[in-house]
Structure formats: C-alpha cells, structure tokens
Amino acid sequence: MQKARALISGSDLSSDAAVEALLAVSYERRRMDLSDLSPSEQASLIASRCQALQPSVEALAERIDHRIKKGQRFIAKFGIDPTGHEVHLGHAVPILLLSRFQRMGHQVVFIVGDVTAKIGDPSGRSDERPALTDQQIAENLATYKNQVSPLFDFSRAHFRHNGDWLRTTTLPRLIEICAHIPLSMPLQRDDFRKRLEAGHGLSLAELLYSVAMALDSVEVKADLEVGGIDQFLNMQMCRKVMEISDQVPEVVAATPLVEGTDGTGAKMSKSRGNYVPLTASATEVFGKMMSAPDKLVEPYLRALSEWDDSELDLLSERIRSRDLHPMDAKKLMAAEITAGLHGIEAALQARSDFTARFSKRSFSDVSDLPVLADADQSISEAARALGFAKSNGDLRRLAGQGAVRLVAEEAEPAVLSIEDLAKTVAEIVAERSPSGQEPYLKVGRKLARILLDAPGPKD
Questions:
Q1: In whole angstroms, what is the distance from residue 403 CA to residue 97 CA?
Q2: Taking the model in full, what pTM does it have?
Q3: CATH of 282-365, one of 1.10.240.10, 1.10.630.10, 3.30.300.30, 3.30.70.580
Q4: Buried-state track 45-55, b at ≥16 Cβ within 10 A, e below 16
Q5: What is the rounded average pLDDT of the residues 198-221?
C-alpha cells in the first residue's frame, strides 16, 4: 500500500517509468492472497466497492467469521444469464469483486441461467428481453469464460446450471413460495412500473423471474450474492425466498453500473455503442479509455482497478491542485485498465503507440497504423474504406469542424476543406504535403499512413 501511495503522491505520473511502477504494484495486488485478512477487514474491502451492501458490512463480517469458525466454505454466488456473445467492462465490475472473494479463500459459485434466460429479465429496458433457445444459450456461454479469464481464475470456481433444479421444481412448491410473497414486491421495479404506465405488456413469467433466481440461492445455500445495482431488487427477492425456505438470507453485494465512454451519463451497454469489449486489443482498450471524458478517470479506476480509496483521493487531489495534468491522469487510468486485460507490456506498448499516434513528432513510431495506398481514391472514399467515417455526410461534418487533416512529422497540419474531400489522395498529397515528409491522413483522432511516392507541393 505504501509503495503505491508514494508513487501516486510523489512521482511524475507523465513518465513511462512511474506508470510502469504503478502497473507492477497493481499486477501484484490482482494476484495477492487475501485469506490472512480478518473477517472485518475482508468485509470492509468488499464494501468499499459496493454501491449497496445489505443488511450491513457488520453482518457480512459476522457471516464470514461464522463460516471460518465452523470450518466451512463461505459461498459467494453470481448468476449468469448467457444472453450475448460479447462481455464488456461494465460486466467486469462484479467479476473483480468475486475475484477478491476467491483470493480471500471463499468459494465462488457461478449459476448458469439456462432456464432463467428463457424467461427474460428486462433489468432497466423498456421492452421485454427476448427469450433464448438452448442453442443460443450454449453458443453464448461457450465464449464467456474465455473473455473473462484475464480477470478471474475459473479453475477454482464452481459452475452450476439452474436447470438442474428448476426443471424439477414442482408446481405445489412454487405456489407455496409465492403465497408468502406480496405482488407489490416485484412491482417495486421502476422499469416494470414505467412499462405498465406506458401501456406495454408485462408477463407473469417476468414477475416470476426473481423467484426462480431466488431458488438458485436456496439450492446452493448462498452466503452472499454479487450483482449489479440494477439487480438489487431481484437479490432482495433471494433473501425473501431463502427466509421462506428456513435458510439464513444471503448478504447482498450490489456493485455500481459503469458509465459509458460517451460521457452522457448512460450506463455502458452494447446497444448504445459506448462500451469497451473484453475482446478488444490492447490498443483498442487504451484508445477507448482515452476517448472517455476526464470526469470518468476516477470512477473507472474505482470500479475497475485494485486501487484503494485513499490512493484515489491522492490522485484526485493532484488533479484538483493542478499538480497533475488531466491528460496524464487519463493515460494512467487507460494503462491500468489495459494492463488488467492484456498485461503490463501490452499496456505500455499501447500507451507508447497512443502517444506517438497523437504527437506530430512521432507518427512513424506507431506499430499498427492502417495503410492508405490507393492514390486514385478520393479522400472521401479512402476515409470510408478505412472506417474513419460512416458516410459522406459524417465526413463532411468532420471536415466542417476542421477534423480532417493531412499531417506530417515536422510540419503544421494541413486542414482539408469539404471541397478537398472529392480530390484524390494523390492530388491532396501533391498540393498540401511538404517535400520529403511522409504524409498521414488524420480524421478526428484516427490516423492512417499514406504509402506512395508523393511529389512535393506545386509551385
């Protein structure tokens, strides 16, 4: 802890050496054995990354202490409804909390919702989530472990499919449980109320989703359940059904929802396109983190790193006092998150490439720039072929903002006009590129090397 604080408070955090040293500390923490912490220390460490912990941090400490004294494994449950192929950083937040439980010596049980995925749980959506087939569930689950494996040791976890017990749950048993649950309990959800107020449908199956989820907790005798804050009411139902089943209700650990990289305040989600997939390359992860607003540096570090609150406070104080430039803080955050997925070396390379990519002095140092080699294409055609713009209209808008440029290592960038977009690459290079300089096309923050023997500027 002291080493990290010393680095954060006293180092030049714009330097590669300081960033590498901090990444090394984080690497050690992500693998640190936490089993020697006392129950109260373990509970406090978990609570520090929860938006809600019910009933209390003291109750969690008592539950851990009880299991240890009895020589029993504390069971932390996490449910997976395999509803998509791609996992993103927002999904990683509870996984990182589960990793802490695992390193504390506790048993983590993943519940694969092969039955509940067929019911559908909107969890904040305005319309019903479509039910999945067996084939879709199998296909989605097949890639899940591979995507999340950089963040969690699956070799030490247990996997259970809730179909093993939900398919044999009898109707009398289900009715017996539901008889003790007031209808007002599932209808507390804002998304359910909003859908009903808007005249949309709400099926009985959706109301039973949280009851089915609760039977998972009963089956595995969960001590604690981890999930996003959007699942908080569902996890409350788990506590209720465990009580009905004469079990001690689980502790609920609800993690915050990560805001998307677009900075609009909306949560990170695939539907909004403001997400960072765990399958992204180190360069892509770093770049997407750098595209986020400065205000998200601390929330991202809090949710996705092993930094503690005091260290985050030190970083924030340096930013507020202008002792640390926000850009340097963001590059540190981007490296930290990239290293968690791809390792220190890949994160440092991504950091170096990013610096080179957006520095006039060192474009040629970037290792993975796309190449533009067809001199007969128009600038508009080339930009769309590279994926730098979705349409001609999008490119004209960028050009109108001065964001389409011809750049070189040791020269001022040439801003291309809307009229320039119709000219060929060869024409623009001939007109605007300085003699002897390798030209690059830059659209917004995206950069491509132009590989052709371009003549110097015309007289």
A1: 41
A2: 0.75
A3: 1.10.240.10
A4: bbbebbeebbe
A5: 88
